[in-house]
Specification:
The protein is an alpha+beta fold. It has helices at about 25, 30-50, and strands spanning about 1-5, 10, 20, 70-75, 80, 85-90, 95-100, 110, 120-125, 130-140, 140-150. A four-stranded mixed beta sheet has the order 5-4-7-9, with no helix packed on it. The longest helix has 23 residues, at about 30-50.
């Protein structure tokens, strides 16, 4: 003999065992459906949001700062490039010096022409061979932006 009362099921065995049933059996059907739909919606939103993320271009090797004409040095510290804008001549280089404790940054040109590794300490140097305006940023911190003008 089996009796159900307030979500509990009693069996007619000699011990009189009582089980609570599964959570799905205790939850009203409308609520289960709402939770299932909410979980599906969240999954779809995550897929849409993450598919819009672009991947970082491949790293471009750093030049040896000791063997090139470094015309500007930019400090990467306190979540900023300082100075954020520099002007140099073709054939000259810019060195970014990373000094932001344990916070990792990189330098990524909008056109992918220069791309550093993520680092908290160290430096990255790039030689600019052509005239133009080169926008760059930090991939994990999109508010960190800068421009190298080569004229």
């Amino acid at each position: 003999m089996v009796n159900a009362h307030a979500g509990f099921t009693t069996s007619g065995d000699a011990a009189g065992a009582v089980s609570a049933g599964s959570a799905a059996e205790r939850m009203p059907r409308a609520r289960r459906t709402a939770l299932t739909l909410a979980a599906a919606l969240i999954s779809v939103l995550l897929v849409v949001l993450l598919s819009g993320c672009s991947s970082k271009p491949p790293v471009v090797a750093s030049a040896d700062a000791a063997s090139v004409d470094v015309a500007a040095t930019i400090t990467v510290k306190d979540m900023a490039f300082s100075p954020a804008e520099v002007t140099i001549k073709p054939g000259q280089a810019v060195t970014w010096v990373f000094d932001d404790g344990v916070v990792k940054h990189d330098v990524v040109a909008a056109d992918g022409s220069f791309v550093s590794e993520l680092m908290a300490q160290g430096s990255y140097t790039h030689v600019f061979t052509e005239a133009g305006s080169f926008d760059y940023g930090c991939s994990p911190h999109p508010r960190m932006l800068g421009v190298v003008t080569v004229e």
